[in-house]
Known about the structure:
The complex is a heterotetramer, with one copy of chain A, one copy of chain B and two copies of chain C.
Chain A: H1 15-18, H2 21-37, H3 41-57, H4 62-67, H5 70-86, E1 91-95, E2 98-101, H6 102-127, H7 131-140, H8 145-174, H9 184-214, H10 231-254, H11 257-262
Chain B: H1 10-32, H2 37-54, E1 58-61, E2 64-67, H3 71-78, H4 82-97, H5 105-124, H6 134-162, H7 170-205
Antiparallel strand pairs in B: 1-2
Chain C: H1 2-23, E1 28-37, E2 40-51, E3 56-60, H2 67-74, E4 82-87, E5 90-91, E6 101-104, H3 117-127, H4 132-146, H5 161-173, E7 179-183, H6 191-203, E8 207-211, H7 215-221, E9 224-229, E10 232-237, H8 239-244, H9 246-251
Parallel strand pairs in C: 3-8, 3-9, 6-7, 7-8
Antiparallel strand pairs in C: 1-2, 1-4, 4-5, 9-10
Helix pairs in contact in C: 3-4, 3-5, 4-5
Amino acid sequence: MKLGIVDEYSDLGSLLHRWEPRCKLIGLMVLIFAFSFIRDLRMLLAMVVVSTTIYIVSKLPVSFILRRLRYPSFFLLVVILTLPFVSGQTIIMSIGPLDLRQEGLIAVLLIATRFLSILTIGLILFGTAPFLNTIKAMRALGLPAILADMVLLSFRYLHEIGSDLQKMRISMRLRGFDKHRFSTRALSIAAWLGGSILVRSYERSEWVYKAMILRGYGHAPPPRGEFQIHSRDVITLGVFLLTAAGFIAGDILYGHGVDALLQ
Amino acid sequence: MHIPDGILPVPVTAAGYAATAAVTWYSVRKINKKENPRQDIPKASILTAAFFVVSWIHIPVPPTSVHLVLNGLLGAILGYFAFPAILIGLFFQAVMFQHGGLTTLGVNAMIMGLPSLIAYFIFRLRKFGDKESRWKTGVFGFLSGAIALAISVAMFLVILLTNIPADLDVGTERAAIYTLAIAYLPLIAIEGFITSLLVVFLQRVRPRILDGV
Amino acid sequence: MLCYNDSNMRNERLDVTMLSEELTEPALTVSGLWLSYPDRPDVLQNVSLKVMPGERVGLIGPNGAGKTTFFLGLCGVLKPSAGEIVVLGNPVVNGDFRPEVALVFQNPDDQLFCPSVWDDIAFGPQNMGLSKDEIEVRVTEALSVVGAVELADRPSHRLSEGEKRIVSIAGVLAMHPRLLIYDEPSANLDIRSRRRLIRLLQASKETILIASHDLELVLEVCNRVVLVDKGCIIADGDPRQVMGDDKLMVAHGQEKPHSLIPHRIPHHAL
Amino acid sequence: MLCYNDSNMRNERLDVTMLSEELTEPALTVSGLWLSYPDRPDVLQNVSLKVMPGERVGLIGPNGAGKTTFFLGLCGVLKPSAGEIVVLGNPVVNGDFRPEVALVFQNPDDQLFCPSVWDDIAFGPQNMGLSKDEIEVRVTEALSVVGAVELADRPSHRLSEGEKRIVSIAGVLAMHPRLLIYDEPSANLDIRSRRRLIRLLQASKETILIASHDLELVLEVCNRVVLVDKGCIIADGDPRQVMGDDKLMVAHGQEKPHSLIPHRIPHHAL
Ligand SMILES: Nc1ncnc2c1ncn2[C@@H]1O[C@H](COP(=O)(O)OP(=O)(O)OP(=O)(O)O)[C@@H](O)[C@H]1O
Ligand SMILES: Nc1ncnc2c1ncn2[C@@H]1O[C@H](COP(=O)(O)OP(=O)(O)OP(=O)(O)O)[C@@H](O)[C@H]1O
Ligand SMILES: [Mg+2]
Ligand SMILES: [Mg+2]
């Protein structure tokens, strides 16, 4: 299994790449939550404009986001194919036995736009800095030490274990195992394969622990002052927070477009 | 079975984050009470990665194939580390595969993680009574795998269908929940069956793993 | 009469040719093979190779030369971007199961996942759809070939490194392969297990390909050696000739094996 | 007077002894060491060993002889059931952090547990409580000693096997150890990386212990060799002497290294 590498364009040097990771984390996460708050159709339009603008500023190539849409687009398709037909009372037109409903259509528009905008901002958040720096920023923002250590360690070994699985699958295939055929034997073998991965990883973890304590694991507090905040970082953060606040305020003040329709 | 961004209203996602923070805090507190909490961190982390990888194994179920959720097994093996482990797994999934979501991370962690802790308590029950046998391990493995997934499915469907922006009428909603729940039954059975095979395998090959982290 | 005679003679000749062609049909023919990974193009570039039945070919070359990639291509795991691979007369089709071609992985853990050694060795024969009795026979036979009958009931995960290696070899032998491919067979073995492996390789009757950094092993086992670097075949020939060529070896990150170097240090043996 | 004189002389003598003892204080003294695992008693039985500063000791012996177990004992990871270990004048206490003793594990993946090379090398110095600048200096220095400065920003999982080995060595060098223990340092390396490793070992000034099945490496690097089997020390002495003793070597699953064997096959080098 090929792991989705999300930070392959982390060295492009745009405004967002240069933004201090802690400020970026706060600014973009707040914006993401503000987006998920939106219910007004006009605000949806503003959301698309804002997220597209930020994406352009980030200099990330278009192919970067397109490649990552393959999995989520399956979800979108399900939403588009079901909601307009089951949700709401106002029937716009009937296609055979199916009734196309207005409320459902609006809901689809809402969900899809919010989803795509949040996805875009999320990709910008994790795509414009080395993934590890983002994790370190989380740690600096108060992620509990146990959690931070776990994220770093499991990220480190994800690739090793992933390639273990890949090789084991190849070796099974070369000995004639057809993974598409269903039988109780296939279930056993899936369980054995999973169990073997767990056993290998467990053994590895015992060695890793030894290696860690021999280099003094736990003898020093986690590093501090890894990041430096400049005034321009704070200004950028301020701009993003204001934008987020603007969205929320706008939605509360004018945001009855959808609600009115749904009543 | 992860709820993506854009569907749930902010109060629900915020409540999800709050609940996740609370359960994480509780788990971390339990972990720190152990004699040597540091000793278990590499074990729990690397097994977290391993569980993540094992969930990529596809099981053929004609006409399609399914992959395992494994939150029951994860609870059975990782104990109080299960909740942080699931949180981390979901985080990776959202960031690397755009599967699940950033705003819904808290909700999804509750859907997967809470049943996982329940599975931990179920699997611990095998130690009661007479001597631990392979048969008993298998049965409790099945129960923890199947029950954890069943609870997750229930939570997932209820949260998803009651929070779709446009209202469904109550009848449709209930019908949808029941239909989907029934559709999930075979998956729950398979999950339980494989969890049971897996714990029996582990007991035979490396029983120490089952003694918890 | 003349005509008849002639045709008769021709027929005879034809028969002989056919017979000799049958006898000398290559076990493996690779022509103009290019292999790539999605994120790394042209790992193997225009490789051609012909291996006759019974040959034992050693593949040497530095890390990243493309040896493992080549092997994955031969087994049909990796789809060539160009070129053709013919094994035992049949072209290799990506994704096909060919029990007559077997690959022994560098790390035996990649090959062992069943709860017991017996299950692991029976895995291949079971997938070939053999009957229960036949499987039994195959497993016992494979275990006795590698001399590990006593391991049958042990869990594979608790064997020593040397035992794991031996069992993983038995696992592919049970499928009766005719072309056996070994990737770094002596990695992580102690000297005793390595010696045992060398004996096993020397005694085997299949056509063998071995990739190894253990040049002494290649020297002891192979009757032909192929030097690969950066995805190309650099040299191909007699092991002593190729590996004895200091300049060539050093240029491609190798060293002349010690047993080909004149003995300068006085030794203190009995 | 006589008395005074005498005492004076004694004092002098004492000083000299102390000085020479200071100079020749062993880097490592192991006396009557027994080591066990919970489910496997007496893996090491009554082992005693003294290593002087600057010595390079090779530990050879078959799989399961107890080499790794011995090393884990030396580092204080495994608690002895009996016996004492003194490293650089201080007894090893189970669970203590002793940056002056470093163990390089057989599998570099176990040792490179941080996601990036820089973080990994900084891990030890950070835990020693050094300042940010000092850490910076240590990391750069360690990387340049092993000749891998350009790797600093790479993620650990994207290194080649040889690079992983080199970086894992840099990770312990950054703690400025005075006793360096290597477990199978040349396992899985290609010939070029192995040669680089040998150069590195030959140039290092620390006291070194190396367990290896690669006897040629031991011969090139060590000035003393210890043969272990079944948890006991069988022989201890000059590498040529011990490894040249055919009978002894074969009895304990070893083979005389090729470079100690008379060269019989004519070679075809330029
Ligand atoms: N799955 C993969 N995806 C992308 N590139 C790969 C992959 N596997 C190997 N490579 C690259 O292909 C090249 C050839 O690798 P390969 O493993 O075939 O070399 P090798 O000769 O077997 O080396 P070694 O002696 O280390 O086993 C290397 O540069 C390697 O980095
Ligand atoms: N964690 C463990 N628990 C129980 N027994 C163990 C453990 N680790 C090693 N052993 C056993 O202790 C003995 C010594 O093992 P050790 O790993 O020290 O050998 P070694 O000399 O390093 O061998 P190798 O050359 O294979 O590395 C072996 O019989 C092994 O099976
Ligand atoms: Mg290879
Ligand atoms: Mg060892």
